[in-house]
Write a structure and sequence with these properties.
By secondary structure, the protein is mainly alpha-helical. Helices cover 73% and strands 4% of the residues. The chain has 4 domains: 124 residues, Phosphatidylinositol Transfer Protein Sec14p, CATH 3.40.525; 107 residues; 187 residues, Up-down Bundle (Methane Monooxygenase Hydroxylase, Chain G, domain 1), CATH 1.20.58; 164 residues.
Length: 688
């Protein structure tokens, strides 16, 4: 590191007692002499050969070797001799003799006399100088420098190949920012090994420069300023040049990595997009192509819905990838370069179109299956209603009375109304399902679905037509059943009214026997009673005729209904029996009233005639006739009404009959008294 008085560099060769390899020494000298610049070499070298611990032959060999290695650069060779050895004359003579051939001056000098040729500040302590020198420190720095130069050159070549001549880096980046950035990258274990290696070399370069610059501007430990060695001064521009090249290549490499990372990310996104698109347009669409039916029952529709849910579950996984990709593409669009915008937007549009189209197909399929399920549910409910109605119609009607028939008829009408409502609901659901199927375009599943749609349409229309036919048959049967039940209602009504007519007629008979007992006090009153009785008989006749008509109607209805009338064996005989009893009783009543009219008329006529008209009473027969009528009437009052079945009935109570008989007897007494009065004058005339 020292310099001679000509400013030439000083090269020190320390020799030792061990055998020195000339080959290794030659290689070492070649290396050391390659370090200084050509300018420094032009000033020559002063070589100090330290032979104090070596033999003369070795020293001589080293000196001669200098002729072969650096004959032009060496100006002076100072051989430091030991104090006790070597013959001065021999050694001096030998080097003096070879001076012209060697090309440089060789002097033998003691260590303490070396300062005659070289300043003490340029000599190390081994030669009595003050120059601070640490060989291990110098060696370590040279190793670091050599390693840095080799690795940096290799990395620069590799970066040049990687960068491919791209020039997008920032060459004016601040040095401190580079160091901090590189240090932060060394702490990040996620970066690549290449980038860490580059960052480490750049940092080593900065450490080396810092060391070189520190030794240049700082003094030694004693405070004396120190001029750095030329090899160190030479290393500084080399390190700076390598540092600038590394920084430049690294910056360009960063840009290349950024572009490559962006391209890789874009390619990954494009690959994932194509995976989603290919699956949705391939297996996903194929799954939907095979699922075109709507089922022929609730269970079949539910099975198709379950299958569709499995398909939707598979699609959901890809839709989740779509959402993630869409977010990544949106982030790249916000921070991407202009040249990537078109490609990113095209990918985003393609992905969105495919996903939305597939989602629309899934939703359409789900809605179609739901509509089919509702249609089959309504069809099943309607079928059950029709089965219930048909079962009700197939059971023969055997009601107990008209009220139960009315209730059954009401239930039948309600069921028919429910069927009408169910059929209307089925038509609405079927039409809605047909509309959805008709809106199913061929692009929905990527093929023509006319054949499949025709099968679905035929099935829906077939179900509706079948339900309509079943409903029509039930309506026809309901009409027949309604007519039959109405006839049965009418039949029960006729039977009830006929029974009521019998009851009315029985009540009239009972009233005739119990209340129609008076015979009248005179002829006029008796005639009034007779007239009332005839009207009473007319009412009974009308009741009987009404009952007969009702019973005749029941016969006709029974023939229409093909059933046995209960009235012919019960009501009709009762009606005829009561009517027969009534007519017998009525005839008896009429006979008594007519007899009473004749009795009262004859009695009143006799009783009202004057005694001065004796010619009126010439006929005794009139009195006898009145008495005979009166007795006959009294006799009939005591006789009961005898019916064909042998039963007997009396008019009124015995007291009522006794009262009527008493009134007749009194009138007969009056007639008898009148007769006696008329006879007395006849008896007196002969005596006189």
């Amino acid at each position: 590191g020292g310099k001679d008085r000509r400013s030439g560099l000083i090269l020190t060769i320390p020799l030792c007692l061990e055998q020195t390899s000339m080959d290794e020494l030659s290689v070492t000298l070649d290396y050391l002499l390659s370090i200084p610049s050509e300018k420094c070499k032009a000033r020559g070298f002063t070589v100090i050969v330290d032979g104090r611990k070596s033999q003369w032959n070795v020293v001589k060999t080293v000196v001669l070797m200098l002729q072969n290695v650096v004959p032009a650069e060496v100006s002076l060779v100072c051989v430091v001799k030991p104090d006790e050895f070597w013959d001065k004359k021999v050694t001096h003579f030998c080097f003096w003799k070879e001076k012209d051939r060697l090309g440089f001056e060789v002097i033998l000098v003691s260590a303490n006399k070396l300062t005659r040729y070289i300043e003490p500040c340029q000599l190390t302590e081994d030669f009595g100088g003050t120059l601070t020198y640490d060989h291990m420190d110098w060696l370590n720095k040279r190793l670091v420098f050599e390693k840095f130069t080799k690795e940096s050159t290799s990395l620069l070549d590799e970066l040049a190949l990687i960068n491919n001549g791209s020039d997008k880096g920032n060459q004016q980046e601040k040095e401190r920012f580079v160091i901090c950035f590189l240090e932060s990258m060394l702490l990040d274990h996620k970066i690549s090994l290449e980038i860490q290696t580059i960052a480490l070399n750049i940092l080593k370069c900065h450490e080396l420069l810092s060391e070189l610059q520190q030794r240049r501007f700082n003094g030694s430990d004693g405070g004396v300023s120190w001029s750095p060695m030329d090899d160190e001064l030479l290393a500084q521009p080399q390190v700076m040049k390598l540092l600038d090249s590394l920084r430049e290549q690294y910056t360009r490499y960063q840009e290349v990595c950024r572009q490559r990372s962006k391209r890789t990310q874009l390619e990954e996104i494009q690959q994932k997009v194509m995976q989603v698109v290919n699956w949705l347009e391939g297996p996903g669409s194929e799954q939907l192509r095979t699922q075109w039916g709507i089922g022929d029952s609730i269970r079949a529709s539910q099975a198709l819905q379950q299958k569709h849910e499995e398909i939707e579950s598979q699609h959901s996984e890809w839709f989740a990838v779509y959402v993630e990709l869409n977010q990544q593409i949106a982030a790249l669009l916000n921070a991407g370069d202009e040249e990537d915008l078109v490609e990113l937007k095209a990918l985003q549009q393609q992905l969105s179109d495919v996903c939305y189209r597939q989602a629309s197909q899934l939703e359409f399929r789900q809605n179609l299956l739901q509509a089919a399920l509702e249609f089959h549910s309504v069809a099943q409910d309607l079928s059950q209603q029709l089965d219930g109605l048909l079962g009700m119609l197939c059971v023969d009607v055997a009601p107990a009375d008209g009220a139960s028939i009315q209730q059954t008829l009401k239930l039948l009408e309600e069921k028919l109304k429910s069927v009408d409502s169910g059929l209307q609901g089925l038509r609405e659901k079927g039409q809605s399902l047909l509309d959805q199927i008709s809106n199913q375009a061929s692009w929905a599943y990527g093929k023509d679905v006319t054949i499949e749609n025709k099968e679905n349409v035929d099935h829906i229309q077939g179900v509706m037509e079948d339900m309509q036919l079943r409903k029509q048959r039930c309506e026809d049967m309901v009409d027949v059943r309604r007519l039959k039940m109405l006839q049965m209602v009418q039949l029960f009504k006729c039977e009830e009214d006929a029974a009521q007519a019998v009851e009315w007629l029985s009540e009239l008979l009972d009233a005739l026997l119990k209340t129609h007992i008076r015979l009248g006090d005179d002829a006029q009153e008796t005639k009034v009673l007779l007239e009332k009785h005839r009207k009473f008989v007319d009412v009974a006749q009308s009741t009987y005729d009404y009952g007969r008509q009702l019973l005749q109607a029941t016969v006709v209805l029974c023939q229409s209904l093909r059933c046995t009338s209960r009235s012919s064996g019960d009501t009709l005989p009762r009606l005829n029996r009561v009517w027969k009893q009534f007519t017998i009783t009525s005839d008896e009543r009429v006979h008594r009233l007519e007899t009473a009219v004749a009795f009262h008329s004859s009695a009143e006529k006799i009783l009202q005639e004057c005694p001065e008209q004796p010619e009126a009473f010439n006929e005794v027969e009139q009195f006898d006739e009145i008495e005979a009528v009166g007795k006959s009437l009294l006799d009939r009052l005591t006789v009961p009404v005898v019916y064909p079945d042998g039963s007997e009935q009396y008019f009124g109570s015995p007291s009522d009959m006794a009262s009527a008989a008493e009134h007749i007897r009194e009138k007969m007494k009056l007639v008898s008294l009148k007769k006696q009065q008329l006879r007395q004058p006849e008896a007196a005339t002969p005596d006189s």
